[in-house]
Amino acid sequence: MESNRQRKVNRLIQKELSEIFLIETKKMQGVLISVTNVRTSPDLGLAHAHLSVFPSEKGSELIQNINDNVKSIRYNLGKRVGKQLRVVPDLTFHLDDSLDYIENIDRLLK
């Protein structure tokens, strides 16, 4: 069960990561990355961010690239939330394929 503090930190990290990815994806044509969910550990030392990527064919490639550059993303996040958080959590990124799953179920039902 999440504490109130965890929920607030989750929302803060999700908002700031969304803005970071919005700025970065403007440089790439035809790619959209959105942060669908962020879960932090109880000690707020580790954050798991789930990303939805459009187009979904590039999803695994982009997630791999993002995980390779996690230090620079964490640095940018730290600059943004440095006044609100004492410790910027370590980040891990995962692909959120729930939209593909929903499309597949709709296709099967038709």
Verbal overview:
With 110 residues, the protein is an alpha+beta fold. It has a single domain (4-109), classed as 2-Layer Sandwich (GMP Synthetase, Chain A, domain 3). Helix content is 51%, strand content 22%. It has four helices and three strands. It has helices spanning 4-25, 59-68, 70-81, 98-109; strands at residues 32-40, 46-54, 90-95. The protein has a three-stranded mixed sheet. Strand 1 and strand 2 (46-54) form a beta hairpin. Helix 1 crosses helix 3. The longest helix is centred in the N-terminal third of the chain and has 22 residues, at 4-25. It is globular and about 50 Å long. The N and C termini lie far apart (38 Å). The mean pLDDT is 89.
Indicate how many domains the architecture comprises.
1
Report the radius of gyration as a whole number of Å.
15 Å
Query: Assembly state here?
Result: single chain
Strand order of the largest sheet: 1-2-3
